[in-house]
Design goal:
two-stranded antiparallel sheet, mainly alpha
Length: 427
């Protein structure tokens, strides 16, 4: 009996999948491979541009490559004109500030993906969250109501506005089976025009104090409503960073717990895997689709709230000409993270880091910042092949198959029983 107990743990351990065969490990490796290939191809493009352009030297090309990888740590140039690197508090702090809305819009897309929906409506949800947040933050006088309470009300208003706007494509999908992509595209432009009309009708919200400012809404700091720095300004002095990044990380952790540790989160993923099987199992698939899109919209609204409640950002209200890029940028963030809420934190920070590197390339070299957009596009394209990369890692897919020649089988001697039966049949 003692011998059996000593052997059984070893048997149990041997039945576990190896490190490379675990789904989480393969997903992380696939994302890292996509990033590595994207960065490498981006570096090749930088060198090719220098080779085809006489005005760009190979020294500038090498500097561009270094800035792609380490631009976040660039501190400028020394007296001799060479690039210098070190701890750049401003760049790192700005990276975290820019990552805050990316993390939340990435979560917005990831939650919808988990339910089998493609939320391309994050820009519209972001805009509606922006309008609600700014209206509440600027309309309630801070002389009568504490600024902290106004901040909380404005944040909740942004989340609710985004949730209500996100539920519209969910309702159309669940009740009328209208494709959510088409519905989201329509609601994006409806939101853009609604927000433009809204700020056109509220002149008291426009920034008229600064000369030359036309079409801008006041900063929330004009009413004393600003997101707390939470001592991050001591670590990254001179940057735009505030406590919003910590709130975004907390929301991502809560979304992960909700999606993986709760019954309702399991229901949402079941609907995403097979809506009809979920319905057969007793799950209200129509309700879950609407709630999933509402949650996705709320997250996009939170992204807008945290971005504009920082107190140092202005909203340009003539939005009918374009849609906020941060809403669409949530899609590559979610793809790179394989829709994992915790991985969205790192992919959002990485995308923000590339944006900062693009600015450094623009300021310190003859290249422009769009090189990093090319790198992001390559990484996103490769993320679409993440399943193939995971299969290659696990050995389930092989690029080259060798044809093995099967040796001819030797003829087996006749069975004596068959010979006897044949004789009896002939007789």
């Amino acid at each position: 009996m003692a011998k059996h107990n000593a052997v059984s743990p070893l048997l149990q351990k041997s039945t576990r999948p190896s490190f490379l065969k675990r789904e989480g490990t393969r997903t992380v490796i696939a994302s890292l491979v996509s990033i590595a290939i994207g960065m490498a191809l981006g570096s090749v493009i930088i060198v090719l541009v220098a080779a085809l352009n006489d005005s760009i030297t190979m020294k500038s090309a090498w500097e561009g490559v270094r800035l792609v990888f380490f631009g976040i740590f660039s501190t400028g140039r020394n007296a001799l004109g060479g690039l210098t690197f070190g701890f750049n508090a401003v760049s790192i702090g700005d990276m975290l500030f820019r990552a805050t809305p990316l993390i939340l819009t990435g979560l917005s897309v990831a939650v919808a993906f988990k339910t089998g929906l493609f939320n391309i409506g994050a820009p519209g949800q972001f805009l509606m969250g922006t309008a609600a947040t700014l209206y509440v933050a600027l309309s309630i006088p801070s002389e009568k109501v504490p600024a902290a309470l106004i901040w909380l009300l404005a944040f909740l208003a942004g989340a609710v506005a985004g949730a209500l706007w996100g539920s519209i494509p969910g309702l159309l999908k669940s009740l009328l089976n209208i494709n959510e992509v088409i519905a989201c595209i329509m609601t994006n432009w409806i939101a853009a025009n609604l927000v433009t009309w809204f700020f056109d009708a509220h002149n008291e919200l426009k920034n008229a104090a600064e000369s030359g400012k036309i079409g801008y809404v006041c900063k929330t700091s004009s009413n004393g409503v600003v997101t707390s720095k939470l001592f991050l300004d001591k670590i990254f002095p001179g940057s735009q960073v505030n406590g919003g990044i910590l709130i975004a990380i907390l929301i991502a952790v809560l979304v992960y717990i909700f999606m993986t540790k709760t019954t309702f989160g399991f229901e949402l993923k079941t609907v995403g895997s097979n809506r009809y099987a979920a319905k057969y199992a007793g799950i209200n698939d129509k309700r879950d689709i609407v709630i999933s899109m509402a949650i996705a919209g709320a997250l996009a609204g939170c992204a807008a709230a945290l971005y504009y409640l920082s107190g140092n950002t202005e909203f340009y209200w003539s939005t009918y000409q374009t849609l906020p890029a941060v809403g669409f940028n949530g899609i590559p963030v979610a793809l790179l993270a394989a829709n994992n809420p915790l991985a969205v934190i790192f992919s959002g920070v990485f995308m923000s880091m590339l944006n900062i590197s693009g600015l450094q390339i623009k300021n310190l070299t003859t290249y422009n910042e769009y090189l990093t957009d090319i790198i992001i596009a390559i990484i996103v394209y490769l993320s679409a092949f993440s399943l193939m990369i995971r299969m290659l890692i696990s050995g389930q897919l092989k690029l080259f198959h060798k044809k093995q020649k099967t040796p001819p089988q030797a003829a087996s001697p006749p069975d004596p029983a068959d010979e006897e039966s044949g004789k009896e049949a002939s007789a």
